[in-house]
Amino acid sequence: MKIGIDKIGFYAPHLYVDMNNLAVARNIEPEKFTIGIGQEKMAIAPITQDPVTLAANAAVEILDETDKEKIDFVIFGTESGIDNSKSAGVYVHRLLGLNPRARTIELKQACYGATAAIQMAKGHIALNPESRVLVLASDIARYGLNTSGESTQGAGAVAMVMSADPKMMALEDQSSYLTDDVMDFWRPVYSDKAFVDGKFSNEQYILFFQKVWEEYKEKTGFGLADFEAICFHLPYTKMGMKALRTVLEQGTEEDQERLLANYKISTLYNRIVGNIYTGSLYLSLLSLLELKEDLEDGSRIGLFSYGSGAVGEFFTGIVQPNYRAHLHVDRHTKVFESRTEVTVPEYEAIFNKTLPVDGSTVELDIDSDPATICLSGMKDNMRLYINKMNRN
């Protein structure tokens, strides 16, 4: 039985800052952002958007009534969750009007959470072939203004429906994975901003890739020649390239040219969104599927997932026949084209505008946010969400 990704959707907030302008404001050469780390734009989440609303907005456009009835498991991968007890997925479950006879949980392991969700979804569907699982990957990356990590911030979410006989990509059984207790990136519960040892984290990312890649080859006998493309978790778009280059010599010149060209295509969405943590790998996959128009059915795609702290995994998927008919290219193009650029001072003001932490009641202006699903305020220490399609 084939199990994999049946549908995939994406959402980013309607605001962004141009990385050239941010570089100038920080007295940095713009090329260090646009070429050095490979980022052009950075999505900015207004106060009316949080990981819950981003995930719900990514999913709302791809689900039909059959999905809503058959989804009996919602798995929310995030590292910027809003509650230490209640799963962010429970809010999304209500906002989307899903079948109440379902399990709903939240998973955490840095940027690896959504990959863990996918593997859990595969097991559930193997036991329940008629089920569908909604996997959500949603995050807002925050390092702080004028910090070394500021240029690798971002916001967005990817939603995937997992099923038997998937229309988009069937996931293969073999994978390789690795865990090691390293402090390359972390965010204590008392902080709304992450801490990172950038150089060490880059080294660990590459090391983990090399180790899981070599183990995968031993398990399967496959090599670079067997892959049309390899997609990477992308905290910034040059990161995956650094890892890929360490193994390219294992392939022919033709292999190298193919993988490098397709890697570039797989980074195009990430370049104009920024780092979305758990969703970054799957935004890279979406970029490849939607923008490489000559990607052939049956192509094998490699996927490298890395979550600091650290867990890494290399796994693979096979592109399914007629997959392009099930993409949502027009919707995602509209998401990007309808965004509004903000100035650096405006970005800083948005960044510094946060929700109260003392139980105060606050009402937010959701009419200025074009998203279908928004955070409308707080009352009695509870976040209040609105799906505008359900407003009377």
TrEMBL record:
Gene3D superfamilies: 3.40.47.10. Residues 2-164 form the Hydroxymethylglutaryl-coenzyme A synthase N-terminal domain. One of its GO terms (molecular function) is hydroxymethylglutaryl-CoA synthase activity. It is an enzyme of class 2 (transferase). Its EC number is 2.3.3.10. Pfam families: HMG_CoA_synt_C, HMG_CoA_synt_N. Transmembrane segments: none annotated. Residues 180-250, 264-353 form the Hydroxymethylglutaryl-coenzyme A synthase C-terminal domain. It comes from the Bacteria. CDD domains: init_cond_enzymes. The keyword Transferase applies. This is Hydroxymethylglutaryl-CoA synthase. Keywords: Acyltransferase, Transferase. It comes from Oceanobacillus longus. InterPro entries: HMG_CoA_synt_C_dom (IPR013746), HMG_CoA_synth_N (IPR013528), HMG_CoA_synthase_prok (IPR011554), Thiolase-like (IPR016039). The keyword Transferase applies. Belongs to the thiolase-like superfamily. HMG-CoA synthase family.
